[in-house]
């Protein structure tokens, strides 16, 4: 059996302009778990000394620099701690100030893409985890799985700083979904709202939008999400969602654009502006069919049989919605209680108002989407699962940060594209 021993510190054995060699010695233990933790600790040690060495290379030699028309001179080297994926490191680096005073400037931090005292890789890790988990869960994950102890305040501040930069910069960015235009036959656009709790306003409606790409067979290839915290007028959400739709239209100009949503009037006002076809969510329509069946048929067997047949007519027969609407009027003329008549009338009104958006057989034949399940699922996945856990209360800025990170992280390769841009352009 192996005896437990202390891990030796990692040592740099060679450095040149293209590579760094590091030697690490790990003494094994009789416990597999303990040995694995020793390995992780050693690898963190290795990553730490390499990161410190490489980060220091971004520092200047202390010579004066110019920013615009202003000259800055070094105030000397000042020590500062930085957070990395491996551990905290301390670096002496030059800081600069103009002859007029003002803010201190650190070229090393700008060139190395440091944000809130964190290296970009660590900022990417933290913000990704925070998009999925609360700060306490992120803290626990970092401790147990990465050997890093980070305060909850730092996790929140870093994640919010990353999202602030993304929110500002992505106004001028366009993303490219990983789907070639030749495979995209149609694009489904949907939006919906769901409740979340704001500490100052109580329960309010947050908005989420989806843009889904489909092939000629009607199979979904990709989905992109947009979301905003509750706001009066929905201006921020509409502005962001419109930006995303326009970007997709530039990439896929030949696709058929179909708006799919439930019966909310303001949803259709928006979708009619941005899509050539509008379809009422099929499953919302069937809910009203079900209500008619409950009024007309006492027998559960007959009710189920009629509902199945009616849904088939609605979905597959030409003018199926008009046929069912005509049948509803026949039922309304029969003797029913006032309450049942009210239920029938609501279904008739719903079908009458949305009849022009219920051409399901035509859209199925054209392989276009007829359901808003993707958008309804987004309400749950993007908003509910992260922002509506037990006891959660949000301020507007905090909710906006999480939704920004979560939408990007859940939209395929959008997360990777974002960080490539940040690595190139800086914070």
* Proportion of residues in extended strands: 15-25%
Supply the helix-strand structural class: alpha+beta
- The top-level CATH class of the largest domain is Alpha Beta
First CA to last CA: what distance?
Answer: 51 Å
Fraction of residues in helices? 40-55%
CATH topology of the largest domain, what is it called?
A: Nucleotidyltransferase, domain 5
Count of DSSP H/I helices = 15
Name the average pLDDT: 93
Name the shape in a single word. Answer: elongated
Descriptive key words:
alpha+beta; five-stranded mixed β-sheet; four-stranded antiparallel β-sheet; 5 domains; elongated; 427 residues
Which helices and strands occur, and which strands form pairs?
Blueprint: E1 11-15, E2 20-23, H1 32-56, E3 65-67, E4 70-83, E5 88-98, E6 101-105, H2 107-111, H3 120-132, H4 135-146, H5 152-169, E7 186-198, E8 202-214, E9 220-228, H6 235-251, E10 256-261, H7 265-274, E11 277-280, H8 282-296, H9 300-316, H10 320-332, H11 338-354, H12 360-365, H13 373-387, H14 396-410, H15 414-425
Parallel strand pairs: 7-10, 10-11
Antiparallel strand pairs: 1-2, 3-4, 4-5, 5-6, 7-8, 8-9
Describe this structure in words.
This protein is an alpha+beta fold and 427 residues long. It has five domains: 11-56, no CATH class; 59-112, no CATH class; 115-175 and 411-427, no CATH class; 181-281 and 371-410, Nucleotidyltransferase, domain 5; 282-364, no CATH class. Helices cover 49% and strands 20% of the residues. It has 15 helices and eleven strands. It has helices spanning 32-56, 107-111, 120-132, 135-146, 152-169, 235-251, 265-274, 282-296, 300-316, 320-332, 338-354, 360-365, 373-387, 396-410, 414-425, and strands spanning 11-15, 20-23, 65-67, 70-83, 88-98, 101-105, 186-198, 202-214, 220-228, 256-261, 277-280. A five-stranded mixed β-sheet has the order 9-8-7-10-11, sandwiched between helices. The chain has a four-stranded antiparallel β-sheet with strand order 3-4-5-6, with helices on one face. Helix 7 (265-274) links the parallel strand 10 and strand 11 (277-280). Helix 4 (135-146) packs across helix 5 (152-169) and helix 10 packs antiparallel against helix 11 (338-354). The chain starts with 10 loop residues before the first strand and ends with a helix. 31% of the residues are buried.
């Amino acid at each position: 059996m192996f005896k437990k021993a202390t891990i030796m510190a990692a040592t740099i054995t060679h450095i040149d302009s293209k590579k760094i060699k590091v030697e690490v010695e790990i003494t094994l233990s009789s416990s597999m778990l303990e040995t694995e933790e020793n390995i992780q600790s050693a690898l963190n040690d290795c990553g730490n000394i390499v990161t410190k060495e490489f980060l220091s290379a971004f520092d200047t030699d202390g010579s004066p620099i110019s920013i615009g028309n202003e000259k800055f001179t070094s105030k000397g080297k000042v020590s500062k701690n930085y957070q990395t994926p491996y551990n905290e490191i301390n670096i002496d680096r030059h800081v600069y100030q103009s002859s007029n005073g003002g803010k201190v400037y650190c070229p090393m931090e700008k060139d190395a893409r440091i944000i809130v005292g964190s290296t970009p890789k660590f900022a990417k890790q933290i913000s990704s985890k925070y998009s999925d988990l609360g700060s306490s869960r992120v803290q626990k994950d970092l401790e147990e799985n990465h050997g890093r102890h980070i305060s909850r305040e730092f996790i929140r501040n870093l994640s919010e700083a990353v999202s602030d930069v993304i929110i500002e910069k992505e106004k001028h960015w366009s993303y490219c979904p990983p789907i070639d235009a030749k495979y995209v036959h149609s694009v489904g656009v949907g939006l919906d709202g769901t409740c979340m709790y704001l500490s100052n306003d109580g329960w309010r409606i947050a908005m989420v939008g989806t843009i889904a790409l489909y092939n000629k067979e009607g199979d979904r290839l990709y989905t992109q999400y947009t979301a905003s915290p509750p706001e009066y007028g929905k201006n921020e959400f509409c502005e962001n969602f419109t930006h995303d739709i326009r970007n997709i239209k530039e990439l896929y100009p030949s696709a058929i654009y179909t708006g799919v949503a439930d019966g909310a009037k303001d949803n259709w006002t928006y979708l009619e502006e941005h899509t050539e076809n509008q379809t009422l969510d099929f499953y919302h329509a069937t809910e009203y069919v079900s209500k008619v069946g409950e009024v007309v048929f006492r027998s559960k067997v007959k009710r189920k049989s009629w509902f199945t047949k009616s849904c088939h007519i609605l979905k597959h027969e030409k003018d199926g919605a008009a046929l069912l609407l005509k049948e509803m009027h026949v039922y309304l003329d029969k003797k029913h209680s006032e309450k049942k008549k009210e239920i029938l009338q609501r279904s008739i009104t719903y079908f009458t108002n949305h009849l022009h958006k219920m051409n399901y057989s035509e859209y199925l034949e054209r392989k276009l989407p007829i359901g808003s399940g993707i958008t309804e699922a987004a309400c749950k996945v993007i908003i509910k699962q992260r922002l509506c856990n037990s006891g959660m209360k949000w301020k507007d800025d905090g909710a906006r940060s999480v939704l920004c990170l979560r939408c990007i992280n859940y939209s395929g390769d959008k997360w990777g594209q974002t960080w490539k841009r940040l690595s190139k352009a800086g914070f």
